[in-house]
Amino acid sequence: MTTAAAPYLIGVDLGGTRIKVLALSEDGTERERLVVGSDGPDWAARVRSLVDDLHARLGPSLGIGIAAPGLAAPGGRCIAHMPGRLPGLEGLDWTTHLASPRPVPVLNDAQAALLGEVWCGAAVGRRNVLLVTLGTGVGGAVMCDGHLLRGHLGRAGHVGHITVDASGPPDIVRTPGSLEDAVGNHTLGARSAGRYHDTAALAADVIRGLPLAVDLWTRLARDLAAGLVSLINVVDPEIILLGGGISQAGDTLLRPLSLAMDPWEWRPAGRRVQLATTHLGDLAGAYGAARQAQLHIASPSS
Amino acid sequence: MTTAAAPYLIGVDLGGTRIKVLALSEDGTERERLVVGSDGPDWAARVRSLVDDLHARLGPSLGIGIAAPGLAAPGGRCIAHMPGRLPGLEGLDWTTHLASPRPVPVLNDAQAALLGEVWCGAAVGRRNVLLVTLGTGVGGAVMCDGHLLRGHLGRAGHVGHITVDASGPPDIVRTPGSLEDAVGNHTLGARSAGRYHDTAALAADVIRGLPLAVDLWTRLARDLAAGLVSLINVVDPEIILLGGGISQAGDTLLRPLSLAMDPWEWRPAGRRVQLATTHLGDLAGAYGAARQAQLHIASPSS
Q: Is the ipTM, as predicted for this complex, more than 0.95?
């Protein structure tokens, strides 16, 4: 038996700009990483040829999993709802498309990222985990009692779309005064009267102590704290993972966030929820997709 | 074999003012209902004697379940955290206290009520359910993908403690500007400048069209709508059950609530979440406790 025949899983993450394909050992060790652009109408054919290429070189995989934006259909064979991006994604049956002898499970990308972090990242062994991704928008996913929440339409864990100010205007999915609009980079220009457009620049000025930057950052931490303490009371995590571009500020974010949560977090018997940043970065979705394929082999209803 | 020997389950709901004990057939048919006060230091002994009485008259039960306020301990043998009410409840091991040959599962009362409604009430056969109880305070519970959420500290589903206005004052568990404070009866006096103290009187004046009442009611519906659309995006239910005293207003509540949700609810492919009121009233917790005992027999890890 050669190394090439060692068992492995394939995880595919379909991003808005890049497609990531990982070949991983059963313990999550990375064997191959393929990254290509996701532009153009032939992105799905490109995924097929990357998977075929892995199979040709490494032998048949144990299983393949897909992480994608949008809402996965019940049964998880396709994405049912994803207007706008990746044309043709809606309704595409991946088991058929990849001519896989086994069902290919399809997960929402944030849900997959959480599964990846629990498998090989910042929340290994945890059973109650909240992931919040802070980037252009705010997304996330929830694991509760060891169960990754999907929900009736696959929408569970869209934690950016909770109200922090019921008097505020509706966001992209119509939530009034949402966490996403209070914190996501897409409103940073408006929130700063045009002064900032990305968080790296803002965080640098926070470290320098510039009053406008500090004021914006304090408000961001406050609104994020209100959202997180609310979510804590609904899904009761033991750890909150912060991912996405804004979380790269690290302690510059975690310190004021933690201070803002101190007076607001419900801490039964003094127990507080741990805050941490993600470990797997933008590979988390592909890790989670592979993990889902692995779980699916063990228990097809998972 | 006599009727008295027919198999049955016992569900106990420990309320702040009353203790309800139900004997139920395996299909949920009510066989006996015992209700006593929960005041005084000997409330736990009273539960024991009610259970002993059922066992003496009906023969041994298949199993016993307990619903109680507070946070259930991991493993569900006791309530770990419940400051203030029912002295002695914290840490009381019910399997031991009731001298039961089988483990007696203990559930948070709102989580039990949701399980009861899914078993025999307004959400039979549903797998994604949000329960929101609207009374003195606002509570609730969540079932997602058929799984009743407990969480790390047993606190999952405390949906009254989510922010609807991050600028507002902290509530009883420190959540700023919470749904509970915006909607619960305990703030109605303050919200109405002393004019109203219970929802029945308020709802009656809403039907009569009194401007102050209509204004208070519209604001209540708006804040509740903001909370519900937020929760929809986090736990993705197919149905929302409204329980508690305020929900007894029925259509007087559901109509303006539904109107307030119309512009704010995310409805992928036009799909909206069903709104309904609970069916089992204040017996839901005891039903759910019995159901949990039944599930526990089939699968001890449930």
A: yes
